[in-house]
Every structure is written in structure tokens, then in C-alpha cells.
Sequence to fold (133 residues):
Amino acid sequence: MDIREIVKPKLNASIPQISPGDTVQVKAKTTEGGKERIQQFRGMVIATKKSVDGGKFTVRRVASGIGVERTFSLQSPLLQDVQILRHGQVRRAKLYYMRRLSAKQSRLKEKREKVQEQTQAKKEKIETTTEQS
Fold:
């Protein structure tokens, strides 16, 4: 018997397709004391893990000269929104070698294909909204 038959993963609809090398901005709920707020975490995706429970992804950023990594579950209800800011051009699935590079050295080239697709999608969206008006 497979666990997928018993428990169906409920993936968060606000999460787009994420791949290693993407620069993302993650909005997650945090509770401090008795107050709840939304915290933003911007960085590069260095690893993704697909599993039965939906999977998870790890985001790394350098803050004040110190590397900070945070792992988010794709199925977590605390995850509000994920925005992809850039698509980086990489040749590996796990970018753990970025840990030993400085912030300036760890910059990646941008994937031109995905950038062109996004601009084309934006143009189509603008055209449809102008036609409806």
C-alpha cells in the first residue's frame, strides 16, 4: 500500500513552478509573541526536493555578510505567496557550491528563454485587458 493512496498532498496554488537558480521572494506567516505577520524572504533557490508530501525547496541569501538558508514546504499553510523574480541559468540540480562563494561571485546568468516567455505572456495579458475595455 502506498502512502499516496491514504494522504493526498494539497499543494498551495500560489506557488509557481520553481527550479534551482531562480531568485524568489517568499512571503510566509510568522508568529512572534501573540502577533502574526507576513515576513518576506528573498534569495536564490539552491535545492528542491520532490516527495510524497508535496516537497520542499531551500532558499539562500546573504544578509550582512552572513549566509542565511531557509527551507519551505510546498504544502505548508504558512506559505502565503512565492514570486519568481529571475530565472538563473544553472547546470546542476543542487547548488550547494554557492555556499562557499561570495555574494558577488554567486550571481548567475539569466535564462533568456523564460524571460522572453514571461514578456510575451505580459503582452498578451495587456492586449486582452485593452480589448475588454
Q: What stands out?
A: The longest strand covers residues 35-49. Residues 21 and 88 are 5 Å apart (CA to CA). The chain has a mean pLDDT of 80.
